[in-house]
Design brief:
Elements lengths: L11 E4 L1 H4 L3 H4 E4 L5 H16 L12 E8 L7 H11 L14 E14 L6 E10 L3 E7 L7 E6 L4 E5 H5 L1 E5 L6 E2 L2 E2 L5 E9 L7
Antiparallel strand pairs: 1-7, 2-8, 3-4, 4-9, 4-12, 5-8, 5-12, 6-7, 6-9, 10-11
Bound molecules: N-oxalylglycine (OGA) and manganese (II) ion.
């Protein structure tokens, strides 16, 4: 059990005993301002072209994401400048596991899109999931996946911020990105427009190079 760092109080809200008991040091990395507006623009420029070739899709068969399009973009396919931002600013903030990183996953959520509560598939990726937010602020809500525990964590994800979920938050809590209509943080409406996130994950044990 740990205390929520004071510096997070304006962007991370907690409610209920399960949230109060969370070991923050082992579960969440939160950097509200990691990437400058100029760097955000550079990263966006790299992903806009490949994204535009796809259409927004309605909810998957498993119904987890609605009104989104996505691509995987291996590091060598980014501009040297973007690769530099990812390598200098993002990768050093990821937990030091000895497994390979998966290709960055780019998720474009349209203004009317949402990601419903889920735990990232444990067969597809490893110990953490990290997200760098671009374009629009959004609210991420986390709740224990075991319905008997009571707790809610909300994070106001501003453009240029990075979160890393690991430990209990990666495996035992669900996360979601609220729809525009639901986007409220500490009583304040958050205007949610089209949002792009860059997701970084480590490979699952089964895929690790030996
Ligand atoms: C996901 C997910 C969160 C985000 O793609 O599994 O939860 O920040 N994305 O876009
Ligand atoms: Mn997820």
């Amino acid at each position: 059990m740990g205390t929520l760092p004071d510096a997070w109080l304006g962007s991370v809200s907690i409610e209920g005993p399960a949230a109060a008991a969370l070991a923050w040091d082992d579960s969440l990395t939160w950097i509200e301002r990691l990437v400058s507006p100029k760097e955000q623009g550079r990263l966006l420029q790299d992903v806009q072209g490949p994204l535009k070739r796809r259409r927004y899709q309605a909810s998957h068969w498993d119904g987890v994401i609605d009104q989104y399009r996505e691509i995987g973009l291996a590091l060598p396919r980014w501009s040297a400048e973007s690769r530099g931002i990812i390598e200098r600013k993002v990768i050093p903030r990821l937990p030091g596991v000895d497994r390979a990183l998966l290709d960055p996953h780019v998720l474009d959520l349209n203004e009317d899109g949402a990601i419903y509560p889920h735990v990232d598939n444990v067969a597809f990726s490893g110990e953490f999931v990290a997200g760098l937010s671009l374009l629009s602020t959004a609210v991420m809500r986390l709740t224990p996946s075991d319905g008997t525990r009571d707790g809610t964590i909300c994070i106001k994800l501003i453009p240029g911020s990075l979160y890393v979920l690991r430990g209990e938050l990666r495996y035992a809590w669900k996360h979601e990105i609220l729809s525009s209509a639901e986007s409220v943080f500490m009583g304040e409406t958050v205007t949610r427009q089209r949002r792009v996130s860059l997701l970084f994950r480590d490979a699952n044990e089964a895929d690790a190079p030996f």
